[in-house]
Amino acid sequence: MPALRTSVRSARDTARDLLRAWQLPGDTCCDAVLLISELTTNAVLHTSSGQVLCGLTLTGDGRRLRIELHDEDSTPLSPPEREAGPAEENGRGLLLVRQLAASWGSTRSTRAGGKVVWAELAAHS
C-alpha cells in the first residue's frame, strides 16, 4: 500500500477482517490491530518509503501470530533514545510494541528492499 497516513486505517481494517476470519480471540485481535497500527504509522511517518507491505502469518500449530511491516528504507530500526514525556502526543509506538509483543525485532526485508519490523503474539489465550 502507499506510504500515506490513510494507509494506516486500511491496514488496520484489512487485518481486523482477516483475524476475525481466523477466529482468533478478541484480545489477540485487539493487540494485533494496535501493533499493526503502530508499525504502519512508524513506517509512514519515519521512513522515506513510497510503499509499505503488511503481512500476517498464523503458525501451522496456530499458537503464534506474526506481524510484519516491510518498508523501503534501509535505515536500521533502533529503540527511541528517550521516552516520551507525559504531555507529548507521540513517541510511544515502540514502547507499545515492546509491551504487547511476545517478541519483536527488525531485519533486512527480502520483499521491499528495505527493512522488516516484525512482532509476534500468542494467538490463543
Automatic annotation (TrEMBL):
It comes from the Bacteria. Residues 80-90 have a biased composition (Basic and acidic residues). One of its GO terms (molecular function) is protein serine/threonine kinase activity. Signal peptide: none annotated. Residues 2-119 form the Histidine kinase/HSP90-like ATPase domain. Pfam families: HATPase_c_2. The keyword Chloroplast does not apply. InterPro entries: Anti-sigma-factor_SerPK, HATPase_C_sf, HATPase_dom. Coiled coil: none annotated. Keywords: Kinase, Serine/threonine-protein kinase, Transferase. Residues 69-90 are annotated as: Disordered. This is Histidine kinase/HSP90-like ATPase domain-containing protein.
